[in-house]
Amino acid sequence: MLSLPRALRAVAALLCLVPAAAALQRTGQEGPPSLPFPVALFGVHPPEGDAPLTVRFSDNSLGVITSWHWDFGDGTSSKLRNPTKVFEAGVYAITLTVAGPDGRSQRVRPRGVTARSCTLASARANRGFPLERGEEFVPITGDDALGFYCVYSGKAVDTGGPGISNNVGIYVLPLAKGEVLLFGTGYGDANSFVNPSEDAAHDARRVDAILRFCLGRTPERTPLYFATPHGHIDHINSDFIRELRRRRYPIADIAFHSADSNSVRNLPGWTTADRAAFRTLRSQTGECQEELASYASPLGRIWLFLRAGHTAGSLDLVIDVQNDPDNRFVVRGSGESYGSCPIPGVREAIEPHGNALFRAPEPRLFAASPADGSVLGNTTVVLSGSDFRANFAGAPEVLFDGVAASSVRVLDDATLTCVAPPGLPESQIDIQLENHNGRATLTQGFAYRPLPTLTSLAPASAPVSGGTLVTLRGSGFLAHAAGTNVVTFGGAAASAVRVLDDDTLQC
Question: What is the average pLDDT across 119-141?
C-alpha cells in the first residue's frame, strides 16, 4: 500500500474537497488550467544582458486574473499584462502583483533583471554645465587606466521638476583585499532638509552597478568603508547606507571627524548596526595637515586630513598616486573657498559639488619633425606642443603606434626630442604623449618609409675577377633621405656605388 507523509495526506485531502469543475475552470484565455485563487507567476526575457537592456515580461499566472501590477525596481511600474521595459545598468528586483475575484497574489524576483554596463564617460573631458546626472570614471593618471568612479546625486530645482540645482559626488574608490571606500552618500531620500531629484535607492542602485560591473565585486564579499566629507545630510545619511545593506553589502566602517560628531550622530534614521560602525577621527597635533586615517588602495595610499570647511569637521581625501607623495590627487570635502590647508605635491583637486573638473592642463601635440623615418628606428624626432612642463606633469612617455620611444628629453614647455622605435614599412601612425596630467595624440603624425626594393640587375653574370659595371633597378635608392646605399655581392661590398635616380644605381 502506498503511504503518504502526514503533511502530504493533509494536502491531498484538502485538494479533494475542491470540485473538479472549479479546479479546472479557465479564464477564457489560452493557457494551463487555473486555480480558484490567483497564483502570480511570470517570465523575464532576457533576464540579463548589456545595458540599455530591453526586457519583455510574460504573465504566466494561474487563476482568474483581472488586474496586473508590475514593479520594475527602479521606481517605475506598469499595469499591462505583458509589458516591455528598457533598463539602464543595474540589478533590479521585479515584483508582479495579480488580483481577481478570489483574491490577490504577489511574486518577487530579487534579482529579476541584471543590466550590465561599465561604459562610463571620463571626467577628464567634463564641463561645468550642464550639471552631470550620471556616473563617470575619474582618472588619476594620464593614460586613464587608473582612477575611481563618481556617481552624481541631484538636488531638485522644485518638487517633481526634471532639473537639478546642484549635484554632489558619491566617490567610489577601490581598496586592497576587495574592500571599497565611499566618500560621500549623496542626498538620500527627501526630508525636511533637502529635496533630491531621485532617492537613495536610485543612487545605491548606480553605485551597486559600478561595484558589480566595473570593479567586479559581489555584494556579500565586498566590505564598504565610508569616510564623511562633512557632517551635513547631503554627504552622510542613513538612507543611502540602508539601501546598500538591502543589497547585502556589509558596512565595515562609517568614519567622521570628532568636530562633526554631534551633527552626524543626530541625523535621522541611524540603526543600531549603523551606530556600531561609527568611528570618530580625532586630531592629535592641531595641525591641519595631520593624517587622520589611511587606506591601502591599488590607486596608491589614500588618507584624510582636516581642512576648514562647511563644517568644523570637514575632511579632504588625498590619493598619493601610485604611492608618490609628489603626485597627489585631492577630493575636497568642502569647497575650496571655505578655507586653506596647503599640502605639498598636489597636482589636481576636485570639488564635492558640481561636475568633476580638472584644472591641471593636459599636454598638447602640434607637429613632429621630421614627419617620417626609417623602419629600423633610431630617427631623432622633435615634437612641438604645449604644457610639457606644466606643474607636477612629471616625465612624459612618448609612444609611436603604442611602442615607447627612447631618449625622451623635454627641452622646454613646448618642445621635446625622442628617438623613434622601429615600425612597419609604409605605415602612417599616431604619436601619443602621456604625462600625469593627461594624454595628447598627434593623429597620423609620423610615417615609416618604404623599404628599398630590387627588381633587376644587368648584366646578370660577370667574371669572378670583378670589375664589371652593374646596373641595379628597383626603388627607394634616393627618396625619403635614403642616405648612403651599400651594395654587397655574396657579402662582399661593391665599390663606386653611384645613385642615378630613385629607381637606378650603378656599382
Answer: 92
CA angle 436–342–357, rounded 5-degree value: 45
Describe the strand order of the beta sheet including 293-295 as a list of residue ranges.
Answer: 293-295, 300-306, 315-321, 328-331, 346-350
Same domain for 458 and 410: no
Same domain, 248 and 225: yes
CA-to-CA distance for 215 and 118, rounded, in angstroms? Answer: 9
Domain contains 493: yes
pLDDT per position as a tens digit, 238-259: 999 999 999 999 999 999 999 9
Task: Give the strand pairing for 53-59 and 84-87.
Answer: antiparallel
Reported pTM:
0.77
Residue range(s) defining the domain that contains residue 139: 121-350
Residues 58 and 204 in one domain: no
Residue 269 contacts residue 242 (beta carbons within 8 Å): yes
Cell of 31: 493557457
Cell numbers representing residue 167 in the block: 549635484
- How many CA atoms, within 13 angstroms, populate the side-chain half-sphere of residue 201? 9
Q: Based on the fold, state whether residues 201 and 81 are members of the same structural domain.
A: no
Query: Do 102 and 176 share a structural domain?
Result: no
37 shares its domain with 70: yes
Furthest CA-CA distance within the chain: 118
Q: Are 146 and 218 within one domain? A: yes
* CA atoms within 13 Å, Cβ hemisphere of 273: 10
Cell digits for 336? 575650496
* Of the candidates 277, 276, 281, the residue with the CA atom closest to the CA atom of residue 261: 281
The one-letter amino acid at 199: D
Do residues 238 and 287 both lie within one domain? yes
Q: Domains in the chain: how many in total? A: 4
Grid-cell match 552626524, residue found: 264
- Sequence letter at residue 507: C
Helix (H) or strand (E) holding 389: none
Looking at residue 89, which CATH number applies to its domain?
Answer: 2.60.40.10
Looking at the chain, how many residues does it have?
A: 507
Does 17 map to a domain? no
Is the pLDDT assigned to residue 297 strictly greater than 50? yes
DSSP 190-254: --SS--BSS-HHHHHHHHHHIIIIIS---GGG--EEEE-SSSSTTTS-HHHHHHHHHTT--EEEE
Tell me if 358 is assigned to some domain: no
- 481 vs 306: which has the higher pLDDT: 306
